[in-house]
Amino acid sequence: MADLLLPNLLTGNCSDRVCVRVSRFWNFYDTNNETKLLHADMVLIDEEGNSIHAQVYPPADELFKNRVKEDGVYTFSYFRVRASNIYYKPVENDQMLVFTK
């Protein structure tokens, strides 16, 4: 299975692979409880410079926090492609990824 470029992803559950660089990685906590992680966020960039916002929700964030680092290049699969968040959009893309495994 070949890696897809980010613009070629289709909305829905996806078992395709993408090879991307993690440009940014940060955690987003509940504003009322700074110890409660709501999700981890990433900006991903493919080999042609296309970017997409990605989120990882607990408990899946445990798989990412010690393995994924900013500026690292990774091949990801098993994610869902959905419409980007209308309130927070760190990159110009109408889609975003949500990791499921």
Automatic annotation (TrEMBL):
SUPFAM superfamilies: Nucleic acid-binding proteins
Domain Replication protein A 70 kDa DNA-binding subunit B/D first OB fold span(s) in chain numbering: 17-100
Protein name: Replication protein A 70 kDa DNA-binding subunit B/D first OB fold domain-containing protein
Species for this entry: Panicum virgatum (Blackwell switchgrass)
